[in-house]
Each structure stands twice: as C-alpha cells, then as structure tokens.
UniProtKB/TrEMBL annotation, chain A:
It is found in: Membrane. PANTHER family: GAMMA-SECRETASE SUBUNIT APH-1. It comes from Drosophila simulans. It comes from the Eukaryota. It is a multi-pass membrane protein. Pfam families: Aph-1 (PF06105). Belongs to the APH-1 family. This is GD23180. GO terms for biological process: amyloid-beta formation; membrane protein ectodomain proteolysis; Notch receptor processing, ligand-dependent; protein processing; protein stabilization. Keywords: Membrane, Notch signaling pathway, Transmembrane, Transmembrane helix. The gene is Dsim\GD23180.
UniProtKB/TrEMBL annotation, chain B:
PANTHER family: PRESENILIN, PRESENILIN HOMOLOG. It is found in: Endoplasmic reticulum membrane; Golgi apparatus membrane. One of its GO terms (cellular component) is gamma-secretase complex. This is Presenilin. Pfam families: Presenilin. Homodimer. SMART domains: PSN. InterPro entries: Peptidase_A22A, Preselin/SPP, Presenilin_C.
Amino acid sequence: MTLPEFFGCTFIAFGPPFALFVFTIANDPVRIIILIAAAFFWLLSLLISSLWYALIPLKEFLAFGVVFSVCFQEAFRYIIYRILRSTEQGLHAVAEDTRVTDNKHILAYVSGLGFGIISGMFALVNVLADMSGPGTMGLKGGTELFFVTSAAQALSIILLHTFWSVIFFNAFDTNNYIHIGYVVGSHLFVSLITLLNANELYTTTLLINYLVTILTGVLAFRVAGGTSRSFRKFITCQ
Amino acid sequence: MSRFKQKKVFTSYIPLVSLTKSHHTTTASQGEASSATEANERTPLMAAVNLQASCSSGLASEDDANVGSQIGAAERLERPPRRQQQRNNYGSSNQDQPDAAILAVPNVVMREPGGSRPSRLTGGGGGNGGPPTNEMEEEQGLKYGAQHVIKLFVPVSLCMLVVVATINSISFYNSTDVYLLYTPFHEQSPEPSVKFWSALANSLILMSVVVVMTFLLIVLYKKRCYRIIHGWLILSSFMLLFIFTYLYLEELLRAYNIPMDYPTALLIMWNFGVVGMMSIHWQGPLRLQQGYLIFVAALMALVFIKYLPEWTAWAVLAAISIWDLIAVLSPRGPLRILVETAQERNEQIFPALIYSSTVVYALVNTVTPQQSQATASSSPSSSNSTTTTRATQNSLASPEAAAASVQRTGNSHPRQNQRDDGSVLATEGMPLVTFKSNLRGNAEAAGFTQEWSANLSERVARRQIEVQSTQSGNAQRSNEYRTVTAPDQNHPDGQEERGIKLGLGDFIFYSVLVGKASSYGDWTTTIACFVAILIGLCLTLLLLAIWRKALPALPISITFGLIFCFATSAVVKPFMEDLSAKQVFI
C-alpha cells in the first residue's frame, strides 16, 4: 500500500505542475532560469521566515509564524517582480523566444510556477519520503487521509502561487491595489485556513481552499486577458 | 589499490567552466598527422593508434586542473575563423573548386538580427567598431549563454540525481568505515572541538596534496610531457571505470539482494569499461561520452562521500572552492596558467576531464577514422605527389602561403610539416585571434598584415583539407571526406559549437555537496542545496558572459550550497516539520 500511495500522492500534487512545466517551460532556457530563480527567491523568503520563527519566543503558536511567512513571501514576490521588470530589457535581448517579454504575463506565470513548485516541494517532499514506507498513516490512531489531503493541499498551493503571481504582477503594472490586497489577503486566508487541518477538518479546508483556488484562477484568467468567450473557444478547440 | 584510489582522487580534480571553441586547426593537424602515419607505411590499425596518440598529445594538454570558465576567450577564439571564412569567400576570387565547395557553407549563416556581425578584428581597422559592436557581442554571448546554462543544468542535475539516488538506496555509501590515506584524523572523538581541528587538519592535508598535484601537472604540461599526462588520465579513468564501477555494481546488487554470477558480472564490467574508455579517450557518440563522464563524476563524488569523514567533507568543500578561486583568478594561479598555456598552444581541453556540451570533440574525432582509412589506402609515393599538389594549390591560393608551403615542401619528413604547421598556428594564428588587442600589434610588428595573420589558420586548414582530398586517391573518397568536413566547417556558425565546458571537478564537488546533504535524510535540505547550486552556476555563467575570462565554477555555487545546506537543516527544517506535521501550508 505504501508505494502505490506514494506514487498516487506524488502524481496528485506534482502531476499538473509537472505537465505545466513540460509543456510551457521546458522548451525555453530563459523560462527555466527564471523558474529556478523564482524558486531561489522563495527559498530566501522561507529562510527569513524560519529565522524569524526560530528567533521569536512565540514558537507554540504556529499561526504567528504562518502570518509572517506569508508576509515575507509576498515581499519576495514583490522583489522578484521588481527584478524581472528591471531586467526586462536585457531579457528581451537575451531571449530567443521574444514572447517571454512581449507578453508580460508569461514572466509572471513562470515565476509564480517557480514559487509554487518549490513551495509545494518543501511542504510535501518529506511527507512523501515517509509515505514510501515502511509504515503508513492511520494504523495507530491518526487519520489515514493525512497523505491524500496533504497532496491535494499542496496542489492547490502550487496552483494558487501561479495564479497569485499573475494577478500580482499585473496589479503592480496597472497600480490595481485591490488586486494586490486580494493576493495578500487570500494568501493569508488560505494559509490560516489550513491551520484547521490539525483538527482534521479536511472537508472544510479542502473545500474552501479549492474554492479560493478556482476563484483566483478565474481572476488570473481575466487578468491575463481571457474572457468567457475565449474560454469557450478554447474548450471547443475553435 | 588504495594508492591507486588516492591517485585517482587528485587526478579528477577539475573545477572548470570553459567554452568550447572550434578548431579547424585541430582537425587539420590531425590530417597532417595522418599523412605522417601514411608515410610510415603502417597497417590501418597501427595508423589509427598512432593517430590517436598524436591527437591525444594535442588534446590532452589541458587536463584535470583546468578550472576556469572562458566563454569570452572561447568566443573570441571562435568568431574570427567565421569572419575569415566570410572574408575569404567574398574577397578572394582565386580559390579553386574544392575550396569553394568547402567554404560555401559557412558564410551562409548570419544570425545577427541586424545583418552580419561586425567583427572586433575588422572593427578596429574597418572603422565600424565601437559600442554597438560590443553590445551586440555581449547580447550574443548572453543569448547563447541562456541555452548553455540549460545544457549544463541537465548534466549537473543528472549527476546529482545519480549520487542522491545512490546515497538513499545503497547504505554502503552512507557510512564511513574505511579512510583515505590523506585523512589521518578519523573524527571519532565526540568532542566538537577535536572534530573541528581534525577536519581542518584533514582538509589541509588533502588540499596540499591537490596543490602539489596541480603544480606537478603544470610542470608536466609546460614541459609538454603529454604522454605522461595522458597516461595518468587513462590510468585514472581506468580505475574508475573498472574497479570503482565494480564496487558500485557489487553494492548495488547487494542493496537490492540480486544474485549474479561472476562471469556475468565480468562480462558486464568488461563491456561497460571498455566502451567507456573508448568513448572518453578515443571516440564515440557524444551522448555516450557525456553519459560516461557524468557517471564517472558521480562515482568519484560517491567515493568522496564514502571515504571522507563527515566534518572533513564539509571542510574540503569549503577549502576546494577557496583554492579554486585562488588558482583560477590570481595572476600566477596554476589553473590560470594552464588555461592560458592551452590557449596559446591552441589545444583542445582534454576530453576525459572536461564535460563539454558541444560536438567539437565528436566532430574532430569523426574525421579521424576517415583520415586513417585514407592513410591506410594510399601509398608513400602518393604522399610525395600530395606535397607538390599542395604547393601548387597554395601558389594559386595566395602568394604568402605559397612561400610558406614551399618552405614546407623542402622538408622531407611529413611529420616535420605537421610540427611546422602546428607551431605556426600556435605562435601566430590562433593567439592572435585569441588575444587580438595585444597580439595584433605583434603580428604587425612582425611584418604581417592583419588580414594575413587572420587568414593564416584558415589557409593552413584549407591546405590540409586539400591534402586530404588529393592524397586519398579516388574521387569518391575525397567527396566522402568533404561531406564530413562540411559540417565541421559549418558548425562554427552554429550554436552547437559554442558550448560551455565544465570541469568534471565541478560536477564532483556539486554532487558531493548535494549527496552529503541528502545523507542526513532530509529532502528539503537536498532540494535547497540543489536550487542554490544551480543558482550559483547561473550567476557564474552570467559573470562569465560579462567578464569573458576563465572563472572558477565552484566558489559561488559551493558557498550558496553550504549556506543553504546548513541554514535549511538548522533553521528551516524544524519550521517545515512543524508545518507539515500539522498540514499547514504557507
């Protein structure tokens, strides 16, 4: 049971991001580099929030660390936004595929995916390592849904990070403060909601988080210039 | 056995990034070499062997200690030939037919969006130089840089993957029970201070051996003891490909509890090792060679992880990146001397210890068998006629070259000719191209026009190709030859030729870092190290594109890697464990 569970959860969490990577990122060297750079910036934000968490005395309250971590992540999202926008000229010169700079949402999407993938990996990879055996959850108390819900949450976080970056970058380009507020607020909301997971309220948290994910996805789609008509066209392959 | 092992350890220390350059001249001098063998009336096999020896003596030169990156230098090396070809093609109308056939290919390619690339060489003289030129070249470098960063990411990641997978599945490599001779302090005391001092002492001993070996290498290289260096490298890769691979196979089978009889194991080992030796030191498909190099680096990293005590491994990583910094960047740094000497001598970086993302080496070698065939099939008498043909063709081509080749025809021994060409190239042709600003002056002072010197290498190469096509006797073979060289001539324009070379030492120490991080069983640390190393590599390559000189690949990456490794395992890990235990996602 352990190995199938391992593969199942891996594919739940990382299947869609992997597909995104393969079909949209892997062919363009510049995008791969930006993806890794974004991952690096997320790591820096995590490092700072862990330092914060380790240094302050409120270790018992995870919520405290979570709030600050979200703030740091958004700060680093802003930093990477500034960096990407300031190097845009250079990127335009460098990129073989000029779509990267012609369409501003691609940079946002790539860096968001980088944020998401590394975040999902950090959240899940040790759980996955434990998942592969020899023991499994739910034998002596605890819930056996632990792994599956973790994987599903990780997927939602990965997708959310991608959407957030698209909205966030565009919001700073257009000075749309509502969208910035939405990104930070929904990030905070989703992270705090997952605190309920400790009480095994999986239905609530997953439902809410996926609702937020879909909402954010729709918003990101609209921000990137999509309309219901273009979506219909896409679905029907016209 | 253990002595060999230790020897190996130092042989494959090569942290280096560098850019490949295309040498027509390398190919060409091999052509000369083959004509030399031809004159000696060897059997085909002997000719091939001899050829290999002679080309290895050309290639072996820059071996393990080559640490440094040289996008810039290599680009400088590489661009001029293209320009020369263009110039030749447009300018000189007196080329005979085969030349036109060969040269028709390269000048087609103009990748610059705004027309043909203004060369720095002509830019100085022609008056169209200036800031736009530099900018454009810079951009060009970066553009190719982005692709080549990925071309390095993939093998580096693969190497790390092999090491991490091995560490996590074969417990043999996880524990240190046997030690290398160089690490006399075994860190068995529980006291951290004692551990610290023993780690420091161990790493100092190890580093001093590395330094001594590097200097030994330089001395050998300076004295042109190519055979010794080459033998050394062959011995080392032999050790890795046979003995360490056997150990690896044994532990792999043991870990998965697979029984295997000795004959089968021997058969596997023999095939694996011999193919590896051939593809690394002689010829083989590029992918195969790259695969073997990655495996060899991974194996070496596993050896380090296995046999170095824990703290010593970290200390060695720190020390080697500092040494790398010194050896490459300081004005009298040994690796810098090596890189510069190799450039001066216009020699290919030795393939056994450098991972190259390009096809140069493969191309150079695909020409080889044809040449050896040609060599085998023709008789010594035809070699005489060859010489004369060459003289006439040269006189057709250009007066200066004719003069030069008349001199050469005077030499009775073909091998002498090769030497001649080689030295001419080494002293005047390529260095001029490489360090154009200072050497251009020299050439002019020596009475040559810029153009002549710039064309020299091209002419010599062409001449040698002519020799090849004429000496091969029948027309069919000469056609065959040309089809082989055509891509070779074509490639300088293609991006494949401008690959980045990364020393296997960099692979090894990156993998040691990641493998060591993963041996603590925490995957977040491993991933953090991986990302940090890749970012460090990215930064190094960016600096490479900006500064255009040999750079050490280890310091930035290893520093990032060490910082993230310790920070993650000390600070981030508890936080993330709290989070994932409670299923909180940030």
